[in-house]
Amino acid sequence: MDNSEAKIIRPARTLNEAELKEFNKAFDEAQAWAKSVGLTEQDIVDVIREVRKEKRNSQRQSA
Fold first, then answer.
1. Could you please report the per-residue DSSP string of 7-55?
2. Which among 13, 33, 40, 49 has the fewest CB atoms less than 10 Å away?
3. CA-to-CA distance for 24 and 4, rounded, in angstroms?
4. pTM of the full predicted structure?
């Protein structure tokens, strides 16, 4: 697999109903916070892109 392909990460196990509710609650809270501070979906995409770029650069420097 070359670096341009997405990696598929499979969960170690399936969440039970209580865990799923807790996850969804935390996710909803995070979305509400992001909206309250004015973040957009594009902001998130840009941040992810920058973090991945930094990670690639640090891996190249350590190799």
1. PP---SS---HHHHHHHHHHHHHHHHHHHHTT--HHHHHHHHHHHHHHH
2. 13
3. 30
4. 0.57
